[in-house]
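## Example record

The block below lists the input lines for one assembly entry, exactly as stored, with component labels intact.
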Amino acid sequence: MERQLMTGNEAMAEAALRAGCRAYFGYPITPQNELLEYMARRMPQVGGAFVQAESEVAAINMCYGAAAAGVRVMTSSSSPGVSLKMEGISYMAGADLPVVVVNVARGGPGLGNIAPAQGDYFQATKGGGHGDYRMIVLAPSTVNEAAALTQLAFDLADKYRVPAMVLADGMLGQMMEPVELPPFVDVGSLPPKPWALSGAQGREPNYVASFALDPYDLRELNRRRLARYQQIEAHEVRWEEVQTEDAEVLLVAYGTMGRIAKTVVRLARAEGTRAGLLRPITLWPFPYGPIRRLAQRIPVVLTVELSMGQMVEDVRLAVEGRAQTPFYGEMGGVVPTPRDILQEVKAHALQRGKHEAGVRPA
Amino acid sequence: MRSSVENMKPVFVRPKSLSDKKFTYCPGCHHGLITRILAQVIDELGIQERTVMVAPVGCAVFAYEWFRCDGVQAAHGRAAAVATGIKRVRPDLVVISYQGDGDLAAIGLAETIHAANRGEKISVIFVNNQIYGMTGGQMAPTTLVGQHATSCPEGRNPQEAGYPIRMAELLATLEAPVYVARLALFDPKHVLETTKAVRKALTYQVQGKGYSFVEILANCPTGWRMSPVQANKHIAAVVTKAFPLGEFVDKG
Amino acid sequence: MERSVVFAGFGGQGVLLAGKVLARAAMDLGLHVTWLPSYGPEMRGGTANCTVVVSTDPVGSPIVDAPDVLLAMNGPSLDKFEGRVTPGGVIVVNSSLVPRAVTRKDVGEVRLAANDLARELGEPRAANMAALGAIVWAIGTVPLEAVKAAMRGELGAKIGEKAAQANEAALEQGFALGQKTNLGT
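Predicted structure tokens for the full assembly:
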């Protein structure tokens, strides 16, 4: 396949078109503007719909309409704008509508800044919008992976009729890397959506709603939704492991931190510390099982994030006290260097070594 | 003289575009009448099999189920955006949003204006009853000056709450809309005029002409604490003074 | 092996494009590479910079605190980034616009009159490619031929053959000037 140099924003947009996305609705916000601009240019070329909406709220609700009409649809934004989309995401979850939402996340809270950050983990994985729902969350760590996961997001969203998010950040959105773009999907070959609004021609009307006034009716809908969520948890957990076989310190990091942590593993091993990495690719469903397995034999599980500590809560749930679970985080859009993290890894390895030496009989 | 059913001609039938679902509206409420008018016009134009109804949040929250057409329930205020999404990917469908005054003129004002300004080829039916009906009678953006509501118990005070928003006039300032009108339902003549306006709005959409907006002055006997007859008289005598009837834009 | 370069200058001097040409050359050679621009309000102020990391291994962080090589196309860029260059690194200074010399003693300096050189070639917009030529020499791991090909790929249809040749000449002359410079290290 041909390799191209593309920014993450452009790669996600092109990958979406190749995945059969034929409607995009968005609103300008840095650092995702290039995605919107790319769609403005390219969507008409593939015969799809593009609207620059009056707000992120309107954009996600345009997605609601297009998804209800059975079309593969995407919106993108950055953290403050994604907050505004949360209402619509909840409604789409409640109406069992597939949609792909890209969050090119930035520093927060509030207006924050436009630097890369991972402070939206809770919002993405723990609800974000109101009510009892789940959203598939995919976290790329390279531009190439951003393209691949965008395409996967469309397939999973359709397969399970759920919203799916690609959680990137300002760095992944802005940087260029070589990309191998996925091939074009034939839109006509995608599985049919008999539930979609297409005009009640020769059939009973289709209704799309997130509304069930009777508690027993809503319970039934939510039970069916739960069953699908359990299927997702059983079949769609994705993660990458780097040199975990003999590791004495396990790093857990995703996205931008995940790629930096790979360098940390290399540097640590060059200096004699056996570090390994588990990089969650799906943040929901979270790789609890793989982390739990590794924590049975690796004494230190160090979570590294661009936040005060959000994913670390899931890591601790996975480890359940089997190992030490320290945390190292940077905030405000500051990205630590591999050397910064290396110091942390070595400190924990050293501490562990001392501890072991202490309990060993003389 | 003997009459038989065979010799009788139906002069008033239930529109086939109405579903069997029972209305949840209060007795005497105009929502039921508006729903019926819409269904009748959908029948007349023969578009039942390609119509999609977009329902709001409010008393008409079930509107997506009252028609024998595909339907979708939108978040509060977002019906015009949802309708945009549908129409942009399926221009062959006839997309109708049905919204109340809180939905369209308060929380959904941005979506309303921008859909109109883009000239989305949709039809918006705006039911202006000057009150939040479903939530129990609070003040709406269209509540008249001095009108009592549960959230303005002393009557709407323009010093604090401003004045009723005239949506039809507001949208008529935009370039894109092809049809903007305000109608009422307080007597049979006006019911017929409203039916004509709805027919015009949907016809323009079928012809691909552009955005149409039909504002209907409706009653809310329960929220206004009036009998249906009193409520209709109130519209004729008072409400139409604040909200003049007429066609503000007709580029058909 | 990992080498990092910061390209910095005014908006319009083509520093982002120079970085992109280098990144493309690295990609075409099968190397790992990242290109990261400064973005947002910073760009509106008229300054532009990008960081390119070229490596035989996957690149961890595209953000580089201490680049191996710096291109300073204008004075503010030299002021801003001089202190960050890794000891033993190289700074390419556009002497057409930057009168002052590098003050640090632990880095090498290549003084290149990029704007004058480009003007003499009849293609004033090729100043960035002249500078890139010197950068390519300073990096030392990406062949000039690959950069020339990448330049043609990037600019290709956008500029005519005459302009392309001028850009190629600018690349060559920048590279040659680097070769001739005694870094004193």
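Strands of chain B lie at 51-55, 70-73, 94-100, 123-128, 131-132, 138-139, 179-184, 212-217, 246-250. The interface with chain A takes residues 19, 48-52, 54-55, 61, 64-65, 67-75, 78, 81-90, 92-93, 110-111, 113-114, 118 of chain B (CB under 8 Å).
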